[in-house]
Amino acid sequence: MAQQFNPQNIKKRTSILVFIKGSTAPLVLYVENPQELYAELTQLIKSTSNVLVEKETQGPVKKVCFLSNQVAAVAMQEEQYIQ
Q: Where are the alpha helices (DSSP H) in 1-83?
């Protein structure tokens, strides 16, 4: 029999996906303010300067750094999880 889940235990969170050139899988980053990080990264993609991006995150990846000219795309993803 399938396990029943209480709808009150289902939560939503938003992650930022950073697609790095030459990589097959994106970096999945969980941060306090995903909209702010998304805006920051999209501005860096538009910029012609090459900047080292270093961020501390709240998910399994605790700290990450990459060069802004290596970012191919950025996405926001909303996902459900059971608490």
A: 34-46
**The predicted structure's pLDDT at residue 10:** 85
Q: How many CB atoms lie within 10 A of CB 45?
A: 12
pTM: 0.84
Beta strands 52-56; 63-67: pairing state: antiparallel
Q: From residue 38, how far is each of 16, 73, 82 by CA, in Å?
A: 7, 10, 25
Tokens of 47: 């910029």
SS3 state of residue 47: coil
- 15, 59 Cβ separation under 8 angstroms: yes
Report mean pLDDT in 10-residue bins for the chain, 83 residues. Answer: 68 94 96 96 93 94 95 95 79
User: How wide is the angle at C-alpha 12 spanned by C-alphas 11 and 14, nearest 5°?
Assistant: 150
Q: Which pair of tokens denotes residue 83? A: 């608490």
